Each structure stands twice: as C-alpha cells, then as structure tokens.
Amino acid sequence: MSYIPAETRYDKMIYNRCGKTGLKLPAISLGLWHNFGDDTPHQTKQAILHTAFDLGITHFDIANNYGPPAGSAETAFGRIMAEDFRDLRDEMIISSKAGYHMWNGPYGEWGSRKYLVASCDQSLKRTGLEYFDIFYSHRFDPDTPLEETMGALDYIVRSGRALYAGISSYNSQRTREAAAILKDLGTPCIIHQPSYNILNRWVETDGLKETMADLGMGSIAFVPLAQGMLTNKYLKGIPSGSRASQGKSLDPGVLTDHAVASLNKLNDLAASRGQTLAQMALAWVLRDGGITSALIGASKPEQVTDCVGALANLSFTAAELAEIDRISLERDINLWAKSSAD
Ligand SMILES: NC(=O)c1ccc[n+]([C@@H]2O[C@H](COP(=O)([O-])OP(=O)(O)OC[C@H]3O[C@@H](n4cnc5c(N)ncnc54)[C@H](OP(=O)(O)O)[C@@H]3O)[C@@H](O)[C@H]2O)c1
C-alpha cells in the first residue's frame, strides 16, 4: 500500500526562519549520510523517512558521496521519492552537496566549477529530482579561487538546478569571504552547515556562530548527537550493530572509560530534566536560537521519534548549562577540523 502521510504532521514541529530569508526549516532535520546505502534494507529507509515526515520533518539532507557505495543514498532517496513522496515534493526541502571525492581523476572532488556542476547534474539524475532546494559546497577548497567555487554555486542556482546556495564546514573568515562573493553575484548564501554538539564547539571558538548571525545566514548543525555518543547507546560500552561497532566514521577509540563515565553523567542530567540524553543534546544545540535546525541521522524510526521529543523542552537553567560545560570540558571531537582550518 502506498504511503499516506499523517494528517497531524504539522501540529508539533517547530519551523525556524533560515537566517533572514523567507525559507523556514524544521528545528530537526534528517540526514542520509549513514543508513541509506546498499547495506541497509529498503524497508528500513522507507520507515525512517515516513516517520520523519509524519512528525513534521520536512528537510532531508543528502550528498553525492553518501552510501555505501557513494551515490547509493541519493539513488535510494530517489526511489522512495518516486514511490511514496511523489505528490509531496512541494512540502519538502531537499539538499545535496559536492566537495568530497566522488569519482576518479582531477575533476571528481573539491571546488572547481567543472566538478560542482557535473556533480550536481549527477545528483539530480540519481534522485530523479528536477531541482534541489539547497545545494552546498561541501568543503572549502584551498587550491581553487573562492570566486570560482561561489561562481559555480551562483550558476547552479541561476540555471534552475537549485533554489538556494549554501556552504559547509567553512571557517568564520572563509564564510565572510564566500558570503560577500555570493552577495555580489546576486545569489545570497542562505545557510551554513557546520558540525556542532556538546562535545564539539568549534563554531563558538572560531566565531562562526557570531559570523552567521551577523551575516543573517541560517545554520544547520550536523552530528548534533556526536554520531550517537550523545544518546543512551554507549552508556554501557559499545553495543553490536551500533556505528562505533561497524568500523565506520565513529572511532570506537573515542569511547574511553572516561568518556563513557562523562556520557553517563550527562544522561543523569538529561533524566533530571525529564529527557533522554539525545533529547537534551538536541535541545542544547537549539537552546539560544542561534542554530536554525539540528541535522540528525537515524538507523531506526524510533530514534527519529525520540529525537523530535526534544522540542518539548528547549530551555535550560544557567545551572544546567554550567553542569553540561563542567562534564564535557575535556572532550573535543571534531572529525571535520581540517576542512575549517584552511
Ligand atoms: N556537511 C558535512 O560535512 C557532514 C558531515 C557529517 C554529517 N553530515 C550530515 O549530518 C547528518 C547527521 O549526521 P550523523 O548521522 O552523524 O548525526 P548524529 O545525529 O550525531 O548521529 C546519528 C546516530 O546517532 C544514533 N541515534 C540517533 N538518534 C538516536 C536516539 N534517539 N537514540 C539512540 N541513538 C540515536 C544512531 O546511531 P546508530 O546508527 O549507531 O544506531 C544514528 O545513526 C548526516 O546524515 C548528514 O546529512 C554532514
């Protein structure tokens, strides 16, 4: 039977304005980095997307290289769009990106116009979409003039391949430069996608959070749950089937005894607020209105439901915030530090 979306889907979700634009994004968005490749059953992917949409998640984030293999998450998303969401395209914000390695040779990664435009065309073909709502430069390229990379984003928007342009993991200085170039071209940079969570606060120390506010740019924080560390998943060690157990992007080496003890303390604090640890971690990212949306991943529909439950309590006392800082002081995990260092 084909999917019928829940009538109640817009009842509880919070929609935040993306910077100073007309676009609103759900406070929780869903990314397809993991769990949408050929290693995951089709029904699981469908169930995750159905649950998300039923809960008011209207924004779905992909990239050319998501899988495995690279490209397969876009193909899977395209199939589910065609099968289940065909008539719902205008209720959805779908983004893709290019920047990381996608194909061999000198034109398959980084920030040239050649790569970005070709990759966007490939992503449109794989997803079967006529356009993306947002198209991102996935990382700053130190060897390509920023004018060329931003010029490619401007062209992608002007040619109808995307409605809006965005950047990901650019540091504060590069963000200002990129925004100025795009402004001159007449295609504003409406959104930045940085990593940000309780254990990874580079957007604060780099000044990026202030820069985004200053530029009127929206922001969507990726890995808000530190890839699952900021959930109840690793409180007793590394369970089988978890991301850390699969040799994927979460290095089990970061889950030291000391780290697990800190996670348990954070979990106790979350419980005292009547939240799961995942809910408190998402509330923390959204706490001061400086972040438009928290971009989660999920391997099960129940995780999406739990995460959306965060919206019931987004406020913190000063004592709670201080306690979170004290517990998490010694952790600094940012796999994307290199991208924002250039
Ligand atoms: N721009 C960039 O360079 C970049 C880089 C990375 C990610 N991203 C984007 O950010 C998205 C999110 O990344 P992410 O998946 O690493 O984010 P995350 O939300 O920090 O981690 C998601 C993982 O946490 C676990 N989880 C989620 N909700 C849970 C819950 N309620 N209870 C228990 N466990 C829960 C699951 O782990 P298990 O799978 O172990 O169950 C899930 O796969 C990506 O899909 C992508 O769109 C962008």
Task: Give a verbal description of the structure.
By secondary structure, the protein is an alpha/beta fold. The chain has one domain: TIM Barrel, CATH 3.20.20.100. Helix content is 38%, strand content 13%. The strands form two sheets. Strands 3-4-5-6-7-8-9-10 form an eight-stranded parallel β-barrel, surrounded by five helices. Strand 4, helix 2 and strand 5 form a beta-alpha-beta unit. It starts with 14 loop residues before the first strand and ends with a helix. Bound molecules: NADP nicotinamide-adenine-dinucleotide phosphate (NAP).
Summarize the structure.
By secondary structure, this protein is an alpha/beta fold. The chain contains twelve helices and ten strands.
Q: Which characteristics define this entry?
A:
two-stranded antiparallel sheet; alpha/beta; globular; 342 residues; TIM Barrel; binds NADP nicotinamide-adenine-dinucleotide phosphate
For the record, the count of structural domains works out to 1
Percent helix, as a range, is 25-40%
CATH architecture: Alpha-Beta Barrel
Average pLDDT level: 95
**CATH evolutionary superfamily:** NADP-dependent oxidoreductase domain
- What structural class should be given to the helix and strand makeup? alpha/beta
Radius of gyration: 19 Å
Binned strand content = 5-15%
Q: Roughly how many Å apart are the termini?
A: 50 Å
User: How many helical stretches?
Assistant: 12
Question: Got a strand count?
Answer: 10
Largest sheet data: 8 strands, parallel, barrel
Strand order of the largest sheet: 3-4-5-6-7-8-9-10
Report the CATH topology name: TIM Barrel
Overall form: globular
- The sequence of SSEs as H and E is EEEHEHEHEHEHEHHEHHEHHH
The residue ranges in which pLDDT falls below 50 over 5 or more consecutive positions are none
